[in-house]
Amino acid sequence: MVSEEFRQIDTHYKSLVENQIQLVKSSTNLSKSAQEEFLNYIDELDQEYLNLKKELKQGVNNQIIIEAIINNYRKKIQLMEDLLRRSYPTQNTIDDGELIL
What we know:
Shape: elongated
Helix content: over 70%
Oligomer: single chain
Distance between the termini: 45 Å
Strand order of the largest sheet: 1-2
């Protein structure tokens, strides 16, 4: 049985990931090939996620499955952060000792 806390965390991360996916899809700073590559990788991670959820429902070592689901979200988030860094390079300038990003 999955805890309510896990359900809330799962819903939260799902929402965050979906918002980021929509940003990527609507981004004008990304090439179509970069968007497609990103979305293909997200699709692969989504399939992995669905398989993990099936295993979780079967009750096969829930702790390991939950850790794998969390790791799946981490991969998605890392992928998005990397894509955003490449797409929106930050400009670091020093002004009166302040770092402006």
